[in-house]
Amino acid sequence: MNRLLLTLGCLFFFSFPSFSQNKAVCDDGSDDCNVFVPISKYMQRGDAECLAAWFADNLQIDVMGTVSNCSRNQARQIIRNFFTDYTPRCFEIVYKSGSYPMEYAVGNLDSGGNMFTVTILVKTNDAGNYIEQLKIEKQ
């Protein structure tokens, strides 16, 4: 019964993006933190569900040259398939730039035998921080 309630609660929470504001919160409770910290954590874990919570309603996904302008749900499926094929072992941000309201980061993703360069473009608005573009290139 508890497992059912937990599952229903998660489905309800993720079905309504307006309830979850994607703001990076520092240890001191302020919002002035690095947005790429939680995103990096989800990339390293290969957690497409949590990563998708950071996706804009519509975004551009480029996985090894296959570019898609798609909805959050479509992008979630594309990233889930990528993580299934290339299970992440390590992800590290190597470069960050930009300024409010657009920032980007470049990172290296190691999937154990395959290395990828990942570029993440994040836009900030009043509702929070959202990934507008995600590009994954094989090194």
How would you characterize this protein structure?
The chain has 139 residues and is an alpha+beta fold. It has one domain (2-138): Nuclear Transport Factor 2, Chain: A (Roll), CATH 3.10.450.50. Helices cover 31% and strands 40% of the residues. The protein has 4 helices and 6 strands. The chain has helices spanning 2-15, 36-45, 48-52, 72-85, and strands at residues 55-63, 66-71, 90-99, 102-110, 115-125, 128-138. Strands 2-1-6-5-4-3 form a 6-stranded mixed beta sheet, with helices on one face. It is globular and about 40 Å long. Mean pLDDT is 84; it is low at 2-21 and 23-32.
Q: Secondary-structure blueprint of this entry?
A:
Layout lengths: L1 H14 L20 H10 L2 H5 L2 E9 L2 E6 H14 L4 E10 L2 E9 L4 E11 L2 E11 L1
Parallel strand pairs: 1-6
Antiparallel strand pairs: 1-2, 3-4, 4-5, 5-6
